[in-house]
Write a structure and sequence with these properties.
The protein is an alpha/beta fold and 466 residues long. The protein folds into two domains: 159 residues, Rossmann fold (3-Layer(aba) Sandwich), CATH 3.40.50; 196 residues, Aldolase class I (TIM Barrel, Alpha-Beta Barrel), CATH 3.20.20. The protein is built from 16 helices and 15 strands.
Length: 466
């Protein structure tokens, strides 16, 4: 029986904890649902599989060596983003130097955007681009890689790119995620982030039909594909069976089909499932209504996060967000009336931003009554319209992918109208204005006392702003 070891990068979350990052105090480990789904596909292909989640490892390279010695896999699958490409090279070299016969496979966002570039890395043997669920099964079953769609490989010194693989149309046909391969106990989160621990993750759909100019989600296709309500229930129940106490939804767009989203909530109530969950992403302000949030709360969902991006309508239109400020206000109002906690994501330095529009964004964030808010400085990620526009205009300063970090001042481009000291000033001002308002501090203090979270909140504040 073939053996397959799946791993992520040691810096999967640590890369966002830099001293200048506003997220350094609120980053906590959650298991990657994509790894659980791929592991399910490996098992369905008749192979054995093991998960090595390096984001929670104190000594990742030693753990890699020990795990491979003990498990002796035939394949090692690495998943990584653009920001972690250089680390993936180092991990691959470390493995090949010690275990040269292992076949190393790369997949994820960056390998999908730049499959030939990744395949050119000496220590990486195969590159999966696009969705890997079926491709990984065919790799296990077929040693003739030329027959496998969605694959790039080396042959006689040349890089061969096979035709792309069509997206999976019916997600219900995929194997269930292999959550039994994870140790749920390592995913403990502070109370300021999750009410219950350990925290698990779920993907109930794939694809975002919208075309925001800064987002690279479209590399896996923009067609919305949803798992059935029955399938989603099976996955919730599977997570609970494997020791997870709270579940965070990691969809591109959970509420695209609002009736399906409401039906999921109704079915949780109908089955009497009792667990805490969050809509950590995948909810747009133009795709919700008051009834949706009411159903969420009845089903145990207590927190929702929205991507607002800007507090200026012209800026929203310029990035093709497809939302309005009124829709944003309504979404927060409905969620709060239903009794949910609310988080908001914003961006500083969007292509047409000015000092005045960034001030408007800060004021807008403070006016919404959000429980949490996070801002990022724009980074033109590869395969986005912003990246292409900046490249055409000669604004990109480097393609050193290690610097393409949303949560630190990356200086990888020249903004069309703003200098970097100004961008950094308003990034810093956003968080200080939001969190140090007297009204917010008083509200948060009494809320923390009521919920017994005061110690966690103080610790998080020191980590974030200390």
């Amino acid at each position: 029986m073939k053996k397959f070891l799946l791993m992520n990068m040691p810096s999967t979350i640590g890369v966002y904890k830099g001293k200048d990052s506003a997220l350094k105090g609120i980053i906590a480990p959650r298991p990657m649902v994509s790894m659980a789904e791929l592991a399910g596909s490996v098992l369905a292909a008749g192979a054995d599989c093991k998960i090595l989640d390096l984001q929670v490892s104190e000594n990742p390279y030693a753990q890699i060596e020990t795990t491979i010695k003990d498990y002796q896999p035939d394949f090692v699958g690495l998943t990584f983003t653009t920001l972690l490409f250089e680390e993936a090279k180092s991990v691959s070299a470390f493995i090949k130097q010690r275990f040269p016969k292992i076949t190393i496979i790369a997949g994820g966002v960056h390998p999908t955007i730049f499959p030939e570039e990744v395949a050119a890395v000496k220590d990486i043997d195969l590159v999966v681009y696009g969705e890997g669920d079926i491709t990984i099964q065919e790799i296990l079953k077929d040693n003739f890689y030329k027959n496998v769609k969605g694959l790039v490989f080396k042959h006689n010194g040349k890089i061969i790119k096979n035709p792309p693989r069509p997206i999976v149309e019916n997600l219900d046909n995929l194997p269930l995620p292999a959550w039994h391969l994870f140790d749920s106990k390592i995913y403990m989160n502070p109370k300021a982030i999750a009410r219950e621990s350990p925290v698990g993750t779920i993907s109930t759909s794939r694809g975002c039909v919208y075309g925001c100019t800064y987002c690279n989600k479209s590399v896996f296709g923009r067609k919305f594909r949803a798992k059935s309500v029955e399938r989603v229930m099976k996955e919730f129940e599977l997570l609970l069976m494997n020791g997870f106490k709270e579940i965070h939804v990691w969809d591109d767009m959970f509420a695209t089909d609002l009736n399906r989203a409401k039906a999921i909530c109704d079915e949780i109530v109908k089955r009497g499932l009792k667990f805490s969950w969050q809509l950590e992403c995948g909810v747009r302000v133009n795709c919700v209504d008051k009834e949706f949030f009411e159903k969420c709360v009845k089903a145990g969902c207590y927190k929702v996060a929205f991507g607002f991006e800007s507090g200026n309508q012209k800026i929203l239109d310029s990035i093709q967000k497809g939302t309005t400020l009124e829709q944003a206000r309504n979404a927060v109002k409905w969620a709060k009336e239903a009794g949910m906690e609310t988080s908001g994501f914003f961006m500083i330095g969007l292509p047409e931003d000015t000092i005045e529009t960034m001030k408007e964004t800060i004021n807008f964030a403070c006016s919404l009554g959000l429980d949490y808010a996070k801002a990022t400085i724009l980074v033109p990620l590869p395969s986005t319209q912003v990246f292409e526009d900046f490249e055409k205009k000669g604004l990109l300063k480097t393609k050193d992918w290690t610097r393409y970090n949303f949560h630190q001042a990356s200086h990888v481009y020249n903004h069309p109208t703003l200098d970097w000291p100004t961008l950094e000033k308003y990034y810093d001002k956003f968080h200080k204005r939001f969190y140090f308002r007297p009204s917010y501090i008083i509200q948060r203090f009494f809320r923390s006392i009521k919920k017994g979270e005061i110690i966690d909140d103080i610790k998080m504040a020191f980590k974030t702003f200390g």
